[in-house]
Write a structure and sequence with these properties.
The protein contains 7 helices and 10 strands. By secondary structure, it is an alpha/beta fold. It has one domain (24-202): Metallo-dependent phosphatases (Purple Acid Phosphatase, chain A, domain 2, 4-Layer Sandwich). Helix 3 runs parallel beside helix 5.
Length: 211
């Protein structure tokens, strides 16, 4: 085997290993008996299967979705054009999550969601308003789609909508559009896992314009 072929083979092998490791959580997470929270946001259909796999793999106790459940369907920009498809796709996604896990599931509707449809879709899931605070293991967690709508006096914040929007605060903030976030309480240990590379294509983002 020539040196060039060896180098190519090594690069390919390293790439495969990096890909497999990208979505892994450390053993410390898996071994913990504390409360595990999974946070996602702005989810296009193209990554649904990946989310299902991550739920099965990480086994969270609580799943928090901070809006835009079918993010490839931009309801705010299209009026009623995609409403029927949104109703179908969001219902499938929410039903699959409820079947897949016994975790508590919380949704904060985003600008591309329809509140009434999400309410109609849910069985045991919870639909909360922006600015809500939930208290878990002694920590107050603020929930919103837009970071500007997060409540004050919280220990942690979960939000989404725009990965380019800088949000400065003394609180610990988790942007669910950038990563799948995990928070373990009461230890207050957090982990970040990347979305698949196709996520922003699925969200239909333009290069310099985050919708």
């Amino acid at each position: 085997m020539t040196s060039v072929i060896k180098k190519v083979f090594k690069n390919v092998s390293n790439g495969i290993i990096d890909f497999k490791n990208r979505y892994k959580l450390p053993e410390k997470y898996h071994n913990s008996k504390q409360l595990k929270i999974m946070h996602i946001s702005d989810t296009p259909e193209v990554i649904y299967s990946h989310i299902y796999k991550m739920i099965s793999y990480s086994r969270p106790d609580i799943i928090i979705h901070t809006g835009d459940v079918v993010d490839n369907l931009k309801l705010e920009n299209t009026g009623t054009e995609f409403l029927a498809n949104y109703r179908k796709k969001s219902a499938e996604f929410m039903a699959n999550l409820e079947k897949l896990t016994n975790a508590r599931i919380i949704y904060i509707p985003g600008n591309h969601d329809n509140f009434n449809i999400l309410q109609a879709n849910k069985n045991r899931s919870e639909i909360l308003n922006e600015g809500s605070i939930i208290e878990l293991q002694g920590s107050k967690i603020g929930l919103a789609h837009y970071p500007k709508n997060l409540p004050e006096n919280t220990d942690f914040n979960f939000y989404g909508h725009n990965k380019l929007e800088k949000f400065e605060s003394k609180n610990k903030n988790f942007n669910g559009i950038s990563n799948i976030n995990y928070l373990v309480l009461p230890a207050q240990i957090s982990y970040k896992v990347e979305y698949p590379w196709v996520v922003d294509q699925g969200r239909r983002y333009k290069r310099f314009n985050m919708i």
